[in-house]
Amino acid sequence: MYKRNRRLRQNSAIRDIVRETVLNPQDFIYPIFVVEGENIKKEIDSMPNNYHYSLDRLDEIIKEIVELKIRGVLLFGIPSYKDEEGSSAFDNNGIVQKAVRKIKEIAPSLLVITDVCMCQYTSHGHCGIVKNQYVDNDLTLRYLSKIALSHAKAGCDMVAPSDMMDGRVGFIRETLDSNGYVNTGIMAYSAKYASSFYGPFRQAANSAPSFGDRKTYQMDIGNIREAMREIEYDINEGADIVMVKPALPYLDVIRWTRDRFDVPIAAYQVSGEYAMIKAASKMGYIDEKSIVLEALTSIKRAGADIIITYYALDALRWLNY
Ligand code: PBG
Ligand code: ZN
């Protein structure tokens, strides 16, 4: 007599009731790019069906997000000017600060999480302050905490430092606390790899480094034990949520994190993961809908509690939520 696993695969009703991993609206965070200007909704070349929004056009996308019951957005700003110190990043009237206030007006209960980094704002495109061709860690911390504080003042729910400097989570936590923002959370890009999968984003955000690369601060792609140290440090410094990025090529990192730590884990399905699926489906090589749902389910199955994805809206429409 065989033991029969196929008994539970006979029809979709049976498969539905025994399915271990199911995607829900509350799993997703949707990234949004905001730009200065008026009446702008401009499609991003490298990321089809993603747009640069000016503030006056945000309401349409925010309404869709809320209707689909997505709980949070991750904001990226494209500033009107860049300089050596990325000063447009901590301007209280900067693009992200204004967008936070605007979104909170449109949808007060939608979580607004802000990417905290310098690369969109610096003339050299690095994620920190450059001294002698090297990103100066400790000097950069002061700037990052200023950026985070200005986002908190604008009313964001969480800040998400994506720079990969040592000690940034503790420094930001300390700055937020001493200014009274004890309830502003930190979602740390903890295990952020020096990945080529960010290519389309850098085009979208105009944030590619003008010299060198990000390998002196982002993680080496071959390392997983080091990722556990990054995550451990960030938790000890006060991270509320830790992140693994990219997602699909790093499912092992997500799983190790799930097995070792008890904090919520976010995984970021990044621009390159998105663009590859888009391009291949456009060519007719793969079926976009089923590939996307498979990739997202895999990320959740690996142990992610939260998935940051450019496919959030499509996925929920396809799932019929
Ligand atoms: C900024 C930042 C990047 C991404 C998120 N925040 C780019 C980078 O580190 O170069 C990548 C997001 C994506 O590729 O979708 N530091
Ligand atoms: Zn950066």
Please characterize this protein's 3D structure:
It is a single chain. This protein is an alpha/beta fold. It has one domain (24-318): Aldolase class I (TIM Barrel), CATH 3.20.20. It is 38% helix and 20% strand. It contains eleven helices and twelve strands. It has helices at residues 12-18, 58-67, 95-106, 137-154, 168-178, 199-205, 225-237, 251-260, 271-282, 288-302, 312-319; strands at 28-35, 41-44, 47-54, 72-78, 111-116, 130-131, 134-135, 158-161, 185-192, 241-245, 265-269, 306-309. An eight-stranded parallel barrel has the order 1-4-5-8-9-10-11-12, surrounded by seven helices. The chain has a two-stranded antiparallel sheet with strand order 6-7. Strand 4, helix 3 and strand 5 (111-116) form a beta-alpha-beta unit. The longest helix has 18 residues, at 137-154. The chain is globular and about 70 Å long. The model has no long low-confidence stretch (mean pLDDT 97). Bound molecules: ligand PBG and zinc ion. Residues 117, 119, 127, 162-163 line the site of zinc ion.
